[in-house]
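Memo to structure team: turn this sequence into structure tokens by end of day. - J.P.
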Amino acid sequence: MKKILKIIGILIVGYFILTIISGIFSDKIDSKPIPKYKVTKEKGVSYKKTIYLELQEKVTEKDLENIAYKQKEKYSNFTTLFIFYHLKGQDTNDVAWATTHFTPELSVNIIGTTIEDDKKPEPKITGNIINEWYDNNPITNAKIFLVEENGKKVIKTLYLKTKKIVVEKISIKKQKNGLLRYNYKNKHKEYYLVEKNGNLSLYDKAGKFREYKKVK
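Reply from structure team:
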């Protein structure tokens, strides 16, 4: 009987501790509605938990804090909580758009372009734009253009974080399979290839390592 009462006592204390912890994190969530998201993957061992979330759209740093504290409230028994955020439509194998990690204090990091970045004006792409592709990788987030300028074809890459344009001179070669290959000067023997679906891919000696979606 004493053993049972002891167990009940431990459970009651544990419940009150969890309730107090939950209240601590609830106080850090403001009254603003939390943006929509869904959990795509999660894993955890002993003291550590990792969660992958998909956001419907870009959010503010404060929104990320609110989501993070909401998850921490749910998983308060884990000392370390790693949360990775991908945007809807983003390849989940890519680097996350943002992270919020409790180790144990919260740190918020937006890796990709922010809402504020998107509001900044983009420089004009000069020349005749023949084709356009989009790179949604948070680190290299960019628009890629095939442009004819001064009688020559070049690749112009507009990086959306810095708003800087990089111009690459190319030579075009038609492959035996009919696909177009764009060679450009670089140290790693990389080249572009226009796929059958219209996407633009990057290749090196090991094969394809990146694919940019064609903009319709």
